[in-house]
Specification:
The chain has helices at 2-33, 52-68, 74-98, 103-131, 138-160, 162-178, 180-199, 216-225, 317-325, and strands spanning 232-243, 251-257, 263-270, 273-280, 284-289, 294-301, 307-313, 331-333. It is an alpha+beta fold. The termini are far apart.
């Protein structure tokens, strides 16, 4: 039973370290230094956290993180750097918590704690990327304070009942693993749009018209998926959003072929292979929304379905307007995202 409680403390600390390593070490060190909690014999290895040097260093690093974590895009850069630091720190905490045990248990605890820290770190980083698509800073501040609150509450729960804390951490870990493919696609999408926005030239230097040919590998995928061998009228790189035809966060191209005035094609790639869809524009309303990170195109049939959203990077904003004008059906333009 004691080894199970020790492992519970090690893994629970690892999960919290994935959110905020420095706050976890700082508060744990203070609690031990001032005897707010007393460690059972199997956890005496954690007494190193009470050393003044460890407390001061963790406090200084947490102070940096406290401010960096609340500034849009600075928080993402900070998270990027800590993709390796937080899991390694969690593994070190797990080894310290396990104390003098069989090396097999130490390695196992380190691997599990590092994995749980990485999962919580990815969830945090992905949430921050979504928040950064809005220019206002209040969401980032709220998320940062909420994460600190979770760490403090988690540490209190560990002190009260390590097994309950482990149970909650395990449920959260399983949930994150279940949504990991969606989470990774979302992270990739937001990083791609952020990079494209940084590289985007001034409006007068943006292309006025879309591409008239697909890159070779994309053209090969399109021809394999579509029987029409007509030449490409226009093509726009895009990422799928919400819709009934396609899952979100798939990178690909919107294509209109010569002679298909009432249809556009989407060709994309996932880890399972290529994805293809034909979108009928008969009696459809095509709505364009300029946004902070990307422009959004919504295609909605007047009967209410199907509805599909595509996000276009800002480099192709003028080209997208040109492309929309070639589609059958009314085109509307709004100033804000839905």
């Amino acid at each position: 039973m004691e080894i199970l409680k020790t492992l519970a403390v090690a893994l629970s600390l690892g999960s919290l370290a994935g959110l905020n390593l420095y706050l976890t070490v700082f508060v744990s060190g203070l609690a031990l230094r001032f005897d707010w909690i007393s460690l059972p014999a199997p956890l005496h290895g954690l007494e190193v956290l009470a050393h003044p040097i460890v407390i001061v260093l963790a406090g200084i690093l947490y102070l940096f993180e406290f401010f960096a974590d609340k500034i849009p895009w600075i928080d993402t850069a900070w998270d990027s750097v800590h993709t390796f630091i937080r899991p390694l720190g969690a593994a070190a905490l797990a080894v310290a918590a396990m104390g003098e045990v069989n090396p097999v248990f130490e390695v196992t605890a380190a691997l599990l704690a590092g994995s749980m820290a990485l999962s919580s770190h990815l969830a945090k980083a992905g949430t921050r990327l979504v928040a950064n698509t809005s220019p206002e800073p209040f969401t980032n501040i709220g998320l940062s304070l909420a994460e600190d609150g979770i760490v403090l509450g988690g540490l209190s729960l560990i002190a009260w009942s390590p097994l309950v804390a482990l149970g909650i951490a395990t449920v959260v870990f399983i949930a994150i693993i279940a949504i990991l493919p969606v989470l990774l696609r979302s992270i990739r999408r937001h990083l791609w749009f952020a990079w494209r926005k940084l590289k985007c030239p001034a409006d007068d230097k943006k292309p006025d018209a879309p591409e008239t040919a697909l890159p070779a590998r994309w053209d090969t995928l399109l021809r394999r998926s579509h029987s029409n061998k007509n030449t490409v009228d226009w093509a726009l790189p895009c990422v799928t959003g919400k819709g009934t035809l396609l899952p979100p966060n798939i990178h690909g191209w919107l294509v209109r072929l010569d002679g298909d005035s009432l249809e556009i094609q989407f060709i994309g790639r996932t880890w399972r292979g290529s994805t293809f869809a034909t979108i009928d524009c008969r009696n459809a309303t095509v709505t364009s929304h300029p946004g902070f990170m990307a422009d959004r195109i919504s295609i909605t049939h007047r009967d209410g379905a199907p509805r599909q959203i595509f996000d276009i990077d800002r480099l192709h904003s003028k080209a997208a307007q040109f492309a929309l004008e070639t589609l059958h059906g009314p085109i509307e333009s709004n100033d804000t995202l839905e």
